[in-house]
Amino acid sequence: MTKKLVIIDDSSTQLNILKNLFTKNGWEVCAVQNAKIGYEIIFDFAPDLIITDAIMPLMGGFQLVKQIRENSVISKIPVIVYSVLDEANAKFYIKGDLSEYFFKKDNNQLELLALAEEMIEKYPVNKEYKDEVLRAGFDNYKVLQDLKVSQDKEEDIALNEDLDEELDEEESKEEIKEHILEDFEDKIRKISNFSYGDEYIFSKLFINLYDIFDYDMAVLSVYSFENKEVKSYFDIKNIILSPILKNNILNKYHSKTAVMYKKYSPNLEVATNEEEFSSKIEFDFEYKGEKIADFVCYSRSENKWEDSEEINLIERILYNFSKKRYIQRIVKENQKDDKGRKYIQFKNKFNNLKSTSDAYFCIIQISNYSDFSQKLSYQDLDFLNLKISENIVECLEKDEQVHKNDEDEYNLIIFAKDKKHAQNRLEYIAKTINKISYSDIFIHCFIAASSCNIDDNFNIMEAEKKARYLVDETTHQESVVLYDV
Fold this sequence. Notes:
It is a single chain. The chain has 15 helices and 21 strands. It is of the alpha/beta class. The chain folds into three domains: about 5-140, 3-Layer(aba) Sandwich (Rossmann fold), CATH 3.40.50; about 190-330, Beta-Lactamase, CATH 3.30.450; about 355-480, Alpha-Beta Plaits, CATH 3.30.70.270. Helix 2 (about 35-45) crosses helix 6 (about 125-140). It is globular, with a radius of gyration of 27 Å. The termini are far apart.
């Protein structure tokens, strides 16, 4: 079977060099200069391997790797990051067994070819997995293309019947419908970033859903990953929902809790049972045999919704929305498990050293990170992160560890003779970071730390909890705070 490779590099020269190298050695290569386009091509191409440059405009290679790892459909595809950066700096951005391979651009390109062969042998992507990637790519195409084909056929029939005036009127109606649906799909895609939390995302969903369905009440029931139960979200328009009806709906969808998005007005009528609604439309969504969501909309108007091509398209859009939410949450759950395994590895590595020095788990939080991350491009943000990581590395001693976590914080494990020594070292690191400036951006950091030697036992996970407590509970007026053991 032909080996398939996606190469992403904003340099056309470098792109052509690598493309020729791999093509001559029997690879089928897709080469692009834009990481965002490259991400979409992964679903269309289903490669065995991805090679990406680290620093690029619009979206950098590190950001691309993060997106790949957060999508369970493509997360198992191995990635090689190659750049002019040093590997010591790159390790802050590339995490996980499948994305830890880093290749420096000034190395021999035949070594890159050898590494690529090694990667696909060590992490093979089988046909079933590739088929799943291609299916996901097909699902992600705009479903409105189906509507366009259907409309084209209808237009041909109308033209053959020579109904020019009626056709103009119908075309106008169809164009309005298509515009509304395209707008709806675009809006749903834009809000499909579930890192913001369900309540915020679903409130945005209901705003757009109401424009399509014009309902009196809508209910979305989804699996809650926090407490492993079903949770229902209600959006109420023009009515007051009685406790009886609310509880009946919760029982119907096996929900334990409810979230309401409408404040009640005393002048509205109270709805006490489902029979008071003349129209109802309901969607049940499953993914791989698991129920992932129920959508239901109610209206007091008769014949509110008819079974149509447009309704089917809306159902598919909502299904893709629900599936993406479900997949992202599963990935996050798996990442939590991976994080626990990493700390077990930390513990095994540092247990032998704790007799001579005390280990400290530290959280470095860049206080104004969210501000400048919104102002800077991906490329500028990568450069700024690089400067931060370089300064941290220069402060570390032998065997000390650092990585950049998913919350855009830096986690350190350092060694110190005692608490005072640890305090002094961390204050020096904080001062070093706070000296960093980029363009008109000035960094401000806060460090919370806790000894890993808890009750005479080496426990990194417990130390992280104590450090996290300091992050959440202190005012950050001090630059460094150590947990008072």
